[in-house]
Specification:
Protein name: EKC/KEOPS complex subunit BUD32
Subcellular location: Chromosome, Telomere
Strand content: 15-25%
Main location: nucleus
GO cellular component, one term: chromosome, telomeric region
Shape: globular
Largest sheet: 6 strands, mixed
Helix content: 10-25%
Distance between the termini: 25 Å
Pfam families: Pkinase
Length: about 400
């Protein structure tokens, strides 16, 4: 896992005027490596709004914290001043994962228990490299994708991606779906696995780019858009794997995918994605990746007369650009958006079911008369546990611990 991807801050909360440097400030930081929430406490002097300085501060000592630590206090120099294991400090959200028994759309999927997965590596936020033995005792190496956060959009994206992947017809340029992952106690759906492709992605600029890969990409986009009514919406070098055995590229990471108009976003169409991807692959120019998708237009790169080659290619730049231009003209004449919206074999799947766990009421403070205020819906994990609800725990040791153990085992 890349260091810059490890931490995610939910922002700063102030217990008084944020302009007052002495005001107490709390910042909840999610650690994708240890899969836990840590509350960082200090003053407004150290934690000004929207600067997320809590992330580099926590990063200094996160690997050395006990798994029981729920909050840390730092002084105005950012140095560790105290830790707390008080469960009341734990603001980890409760995620009510859907029981497999009520996920009817997944009924025909093969499953694997979480305890049967053996972690091999941490590829990125919410993605592990894992292995397991199948029913025949044959080892399988897979990418395990999961969502440990309760953000509504994340939950919906995870559900949609799982249902989309399991319904996609086999295709030589799409990473194959493998299994639904169930936690061991109540068989709730906590993620899924896909086949692991070890060749790396096109993000590796040392890999020569082949003309046939552009052909494969455009054919795949046509298939997804015009046959299935699916818009990937995140075509990029980082999402294109290289299969060394077949010499093909494979697309993965469908969590932004749209089905028809559902979740369709301006500027994230796959034709635009192909154009900017090819430009980046040839030139290594990544400046357009920082522009919001709604402000992107293919003319930004198409109007550049010379795409300076900064990567090894198996053909002249002109061959790539001529092919791209011909493809763009064909897509434009094919009816564009209308043909996508009226795809012949459009995939559909049900909406994310509402977990009944959120219907259990819990006390949210008291009113002015001292009477308890009862509510339902999202809650902290500690609140759910107090109500006797089953909670899946993701916490794990930092990867550095595992690497150190592996090294010591080699001696």
């Amino acid at each position: 896992m890349k260091f810059q991807d490890r931490f995610y801050s939910e922002g700063q909360g102030y217990f008084g005027p944020r302009e007052n440097p002495l005001t107490e400030a709390h910042c909840n930081v999610w650690d994708w490596d240890r899969l836990c929430m840590v509350k960082v406490k200090g003053t407004a002097k150290l934690f000004p709004p929207d600067e997320d300085v809590e992330v580099p501060i926590l990063a200094q000592f996160a690997d050395y914290l006990s798994p029981e630590v729920r909050a840390v206090t730092v002084d105005d120099d950012g140095l560790l001043a105290g830790v707390s294991t008080d469960p009341e400090e734990d603001d980890t959200p409760f995620v009510a994962y859907i029981p497999f028994s009520v996920a009817e759309s997944l009924a025909d999927c093969r499953t694997i228990q979480y305890s049967k997965l053996h972690e091999l590596d941490r590829l990125g936020p919410g993605v592990d490299l894992s292995s397991y033995e199948d029913e025949s005792g044959i080892p399988q190496k897979v990418a395990f994708k999961f969502n440990p956060l309760d953000k509504p959009q994340r939950l919906k994206m995870a559900w949609d991606e799982l249902n989309l992947l399991k319904d996609l017809p086999p295709h030589p340029n799409i990473v194959p779906f493998d299994r639904v992952v169930l936690e061991d106690v109540e068989s709730r759906v906590i993620g899924f696995t896909t086949k692991y492709i070890p060749g790396g992605t096109l993000d590796n600029t040392n890999v020569p780019f082949r003309f046939e890969w552009l052909q494969q990409l455009t054919e795949l986009v046509d298939f997804l858009n015009l046959e299935l009514g699916i818009m990937h919406q995140d075509i990029a070098p980082r999402n294109l794997l290289i299969d060394r055995d077949t010499n093909k590229i494979l697309l993965f990471d469908f969590d932004w995918a749209a089905c028809g108009r559902n979740r369709l976003l301006d500027g994230r169409d796959d034709v635009t994605g192909v154009v900017f991807t090819l430009y980046e692959l040839i030139t290594k120019d990544t400046r357009f990746t920082s522009i919001p998708h709604w402000n992107l237009n293919i003319d930004m790169v198409q109007s550049i007369s010379v795409w300076t080659r900064n990567r090894e290619l198996d053909s002249d730049v002109s061959k790539f650009r001529n092919f791209l231009n011909d493809w763009l003209a064909t897509r434009k004449s094919d009816g564009g958006l209308e043909r996508y919206l009226n795809a012949r074999n459009q995939l559909t799947w049900p909406d994310l079911p509402t977990a009944s766990d959120y219907n259990i009421p819990f006390e949210l403070g008291k009113n002015s008369d001292g009477e308890p205020i009862w509510t339902t819906g999202p809650r902290f994990r500690r609140t759910a546990m107090e109500k006797g609800q089953y909670c899946f725990h993701w916490e794990r040791p930092p990867q550095s611990n595992l690497l150190n153990k592996a090294k010591s085992g080699m001696h």
